[in-house]
Amino acid sequence: MNGRTKWIGIGLLALTLGGAASAAQGIGGRRVFRGEHAARRALARHPRLARAIRAKAQAREGIQRLLDSLAATDAQRAVALEAARAAEPIARQARAEALAIRSEVLAQHGGDRQAAREEMRERIGELRQRTLASLAPHAQAVLATLTPEQRAKLDEAAARRRRTLDEERLLRITSYLLTRPATVAKLENSSRR
User: Fold this and answer.
1) Which of 37, 93, 101, 178 could form a disulfide with 87 if both were Cys (CB 3.0 to 4.6 A apart)?
2) In 4-17, which positions are buried (b, 16+ CB within 10 angstroms) versus exposed (e)?
């Protein structure tokens, strides 16, 4: 590198860094990314909200994240894919029924939102139980493929969160993960890799 090229490179680097520094300062010495910083502070003040946001993001990943964390084999992924395909119409029908229940109850109770909320809670609770019973065989098929080492990993993860992982809870979680939107597409994409 000759002297001229070196000085041109140093000059460009100085301009780039100087421009980035001044942009970060913004007007009046405040950072430009104030909203992001405020969001981080709000999440730091409200840890339950932060956990809920993280849980929602993890749930979007669905059963794929669980299978990845357990280092599932191709055969286990194939069983999960078949179970997700079988669970998809059940979940779709349950979502449609829940929307129908909601609109029906709101129409019945008009302005009394508390009474509507109580009736909805009861009727949707019954729908959840029926749906869980319909999804149980599919979730059980996925759980039956787990090795003892994979089950131990799940127990360790639950213990880190100060929880116990009994069979009923594991079945409910697996059923939930199988019914997340786009689960089938994500499992199909991972099987192609």
Assistant:
1) 178
2) eeeeeeeeeeeeee
Q: Are residues 55 and 66 in the same domain?
A: no
- pLDDT attached to residue 7: 63
Q: What's the CA gap between 193 and 189, in Å, rounded?
A: 7
Reading the block at residue 91, the tokens are 């979940």
pLDDT for 15? 56
Q: Are residues 90 and 184 in the same domain?
A: yes
Residue 8 lies in a domain: no
Is residue 11 very low, low, confident or very high in pLDDT (cuts 50, 70, 90)? Answer: low
pLDDT score at 33? 47
Q: CA 49, 156, 177 angle in degrees (round to 5)?
A: 55
Work out the average pLDDT over 118-146: 93
- In a shared domain, residues 56 and 127: no
Pair of tokens at residue 189: 């994409």
Copy the structure tokens of residue 172. Answer: 């409910």
Listed residue (179, 131, 95) closest to 103, CA to CA: 95
